Amino acid sequence: MSEAEASVPAEPQRFAPAQPVERTAQLEPKHLAEPAEQLQPRHLAEPAKTVERSAAEVRSLHRSVESQDVWLDPAAGKRLREMLDEQLSRVEAWMKRSEDLARQAPLGRNPVGTAMAEKFAGRAGSTDEHSFAGVLQRYREVLEDARGAVDDAMRTYRQVDEQAADSFRKLI
């Protein structure tokens, strides 16, 4: 038997049809007493966690700059700063567009439509850390902190460069 024949299965595999998935869940009174963040869908927490990881990295960068472990050539820093400014402009535009998402959608004048409209508006426009607007606001703060770290790193580079130049002049 050749390699080609050995790699082809003798019979096609048959798959059983998928079992129907029940899409409703029972909400028992004990669930109503849980904190609201536990009732949030998991996917809403992921962007907030990602932004917080970025914030931690920027804080680490600040510490490295303060201890003069990181210096940044002003030419490279200028390019990096331009990229951060461009991203900040994008975030500002996103935040302005997100205001439209925070308006209550006309889903009807019945209790379910009203509740759903309030829920969607809250997820989009509230200041909650998991809302769209809340995540964008925190992301903007992280970008501003990163821009500050870049500025500090460029300043550190200039200071170290000036100190080295002064030391060299003293030798001459």
TrEMBL record:
Domain of life (superkingdom): Bacteria
Residue numbers spanned by region Disordered: 1-55
Protein keywords: Coiled coil
Record's compositionally biased regions (Basic and acidic residues): 43-55
Coiled-coil annotated spans: 136-163
Protein name: Uncharacterized protein
Organism: Saccharopolyspora taberi
